[in-house]
Design brief:
By secondary structure, this protein is of the alpha/beta class. It has ten helices and 18 strands.
Length: about 375
């Protein structure tokens, strides 16, 4: 926890859980990506945390933006960023939303099938498109291997269809899975991308760009390689598969940009057992799956948790949220070791919560307020 966040929480007197994000850490993260991959354009994944203060900071640093909806596009444009710095990276778009993005000046769109290409042909003529290919996501804690993308063998047909219908077949994209700890994941994906480039060249169409997606992790309970290590591995894979004719490249950090910049302060509401002789306690917090901690689903993301009683004797605890929904259990398969002295009313800190928390918070399930957010 940064000193700035520590000072903010000491002064805060409002009730209820909150997430606090330190912009100085976001700035450091952006600069690390820019240094580690100096010839690659950074397109911040807005969905990770669209707080206006974060978007404005990144705009001032020269970042571009990966947007999943017209709403996110409008948030970016509100910072003063030019539409040329926006990629409409969702492969599932309403035709009227494509038209609206085009009217705003967006000219870069993701596709993964000819049907999506046809929408763009009709309402965004002359635009650039890149085709997302499937990636298995092995090594990722939050895989993204099924819903988006097409088989690499199908991508040339999608891109040629775009080219024949007046669009610019610009390139290929992939996503190696969120919180990707396997440095070799990009090597496998770039080999696929190079194969698509080669097939398109045989068809007389020159691709120009590879969008290498996100996947850059933040530190939770396990140590992770630093951004420079990822940068080195990616550059080696690029030269291995593309030789001296490197394409222009994009990365889309989201979690890696803001994850470690924020934490959640929450309160212990109840501590109990289900049976007198249980060796495991249940610890209920005033925040749960419906208030920003959706990524605890299947216990995929395991956040570091700090208590005011760390150092005391511990026992295993199931962590759960406050709502009356039975799925609002955070960690049960693998309970957390928490202090036996932990008490009702204690404030705890859930670290590395800068990404995918406010955007997953409900508007008021069970009447609980959405997660409060502060950017400092």
């Amino acid at each position: 926890m940064s000193q700035r966040i520590r000072d903010f929480l000491r002064r805060r007197d409002e009730d209820g859980p909150c997430v606090v994000v330190d912009l100085d850490i976001v700035r450091d993260n952006y600069e690390a990506f820019a240094r580690s991959l100096p010839d690659t354009s950074v397109y911040y994944a807005v969905k990770a945390n669209p707080a206006p203060e974060i978007l404005s900071l990144l705009e001032s640093l020269g970042s571009s933006f990966d947007c999943a909806s017209v709403g996110e596009i409008e948030m970016v444009l509100a910072t003063g960023a030019d539409a040329s710095r926006i990629s409409y990276g969702n492969t599932i778009k309403k035709e009227r939303d494509i038209a609206k993005a085009y009217a705003y000046g967006v000219r870069l769109f993701a596709v993964d099938c000819v049907e999506e290409v046809d929408k763009i042909v009709r309402v965004a003529p002359g635009s650039k498109v890149f085709c997302r290919v499937l990636c298995d996501g092995v090594g990722a804690e939050w895989p993204l291997s099924r819903k988006f993308g097409c088989d690499p063998d199908m991508a040339p047909d999608v891109l040629e269809h775009a080219h024949r219908n007046g669009l610019t077949a610009h390139g290929v994209s992939f996503h190696v899975g969120s919180q990707q700890a396997n440095l070799q994941a990009w090597d496998f994906a770039l080999a696929m991308a190079a194969g698509v480039f080669q097939e398109m060249a045989l068809r007389g169409i020159e691709l120009k760009m590879v969008n290498m997606g996100g996947g850059f992790p933040t530190r939770y309970l396990k140590d992770i390689p630093g951004v420079p290590t990822y940068g080195s591995a990616i550059f080696q894979a690029l030269t291995k598969h593309f030789g001296n004719r490197l394409p222009s490249t994009i990365i889309e950090p989201g979690r890696g940009m803001v994850g470690n910049a924020g934490l959640i302060e929450a309160e212990v509401v109840l501590i109990s057992k289900k049976h007198d002789d249980d060796a495991v306690r249940w610890v209920y917090l005033d925040i749960g799956k419906f208030h920003g901690l959706a990524e605890t689903m299947d216990e995929a993301i395991r956040y570091p948790i700090k208590t005011p009683r760390d150092g005391d004797a511990t026992m295993p605890c199931v962590l759960a949220g406050p709502t009356c929904d039975s799925v609002d259990v955070l960690y049960e398969k693998t309970p957390y070791e928490l202090p036996v002295s932990l008490s009702i009313g204690d404030k705890i800190l859930i670290e590395a919560c800068g990404a995918y928390t406010t955007t997953y918070s409900s508007v008021g399930f069970n009447g609980f307020a959405p997660l409060a957010s502060y950017v400092i």
